[in-house]
Design goal:
This protein is 30% helix and 30% strand. With 231 residues, it is of the alpha/beta class. It has 2 domains: 2-94 and 180-203, 2-Layer Sandwich (Nucleotidyltransferase, domain 5); 96-177, ATPase, nucleotide binding domain (Nucleotidyltransferase, domain 5, 2-Layer Sandwich). α1 (35-50) crosses α2 and α3 (95-107) crosses α4. It is globular and about 45 Å long. The termini are far apart.
Length: 231
């Protein structure tokens, strides 16, 4: 398979291109507000390095969220534009699933509670189990205070929320400080494509868990004086 994958849901920009069975061409760099201006040039550079044109891609794989609102809009708009232009299907992948896959690849964890910093004193989380060569999610995707994240015995915790909330996430679980990477998306893509999860360009849409992106002045003031809830 010829695949392009990218994730802009966090503070990092991660892009990868794989041509057939060759080693992927990978870029890892600063994202955030810069992702909207650097993503297309990075994609063009990696496609050139891999010797591929857009029309030769089998799918455009992207992290659909949850994550940064600006980052998700960037990823979806670029995926839609490229998929329309190339007549190529898009493959949306949950960013928390990509975190779980990166934790499996980096640390060998196969029961993972993936946690991403959602800002506003909250985190996104989801629980994933890897069995028989495939991942499944247990339950839904959550959004709440770090103290609300539960990690069952024998499970690991993975993601990027540890620096922001060092003492507010479960301390007794094994940890992997990882991000949702384009390399993880490439590893997930073949099974997801075989399962028929690709969508036309118009279906390259973000997964929003939070319906509010900013607090009022009163809400920010209340958050400063409210004590952190106990686990």
């Amino acid at each position: 398979m010829n695949l392009l994958a990218f994730d802009t849901s966090t503070e990092a920009l991660s892009v990868a291109v794989r041509r057939g069975a060759a080693q992927p061409c990978v870029h890892e760099g600063a994202g955030g507000a810069r992702a909207s201006t650097t993503l297309i040039p990075v994609i063009q550079e990696l496609l050139a390095r891999a010797g591929l044109r857009l029309g030769e891609l089998d799918a455009i794989v992207f992290g659909r969220g949850p994550g940064s609102f600006t980052g998700l809009r960037t990823a979806c708009s670029v995926a839609q534009r490229l998929a329309f232009g190339a007549g190529t299907p898009a493959l949306p992948v949950d960013t928390l699933l990509a975190v779980a896959e990166e934790a499996r690849f980096a640390a060998g964890f196969e029961r993972v509670v993936a946690v991403l910093d959602a800002r506003m004193d909250e985190v996104y989380w989801g629980a994933y189990v890897h069995e028989h060569g495939a991942w499944r999610r247990e339950g839904g995707i959550g959004l709440g205070r770090p103290e609300s994240v539960a990690v069952p015995a024998g499970w690991a915790l993975a993601g990027n929320a540890f620096a922001a909330y060092p003492a507010r996430l479960p301390a007794d679980a094994p940890r992997a400080q990882v991000l949702p990477t384009a390399s993880a998306l490439l590893r997930l893509a073949p099974a997801m494509l075989d399962a028929g999860l690709a969508v036309p360009a118009a279906g390259a849409l973000p997964l929003y868990i939070r319906d509010k992106v900013a607090q009022t002045t009163a809400e920010r003031a209340a958050a400063r004086v409210e004590p952190n809830p106990r686990p």
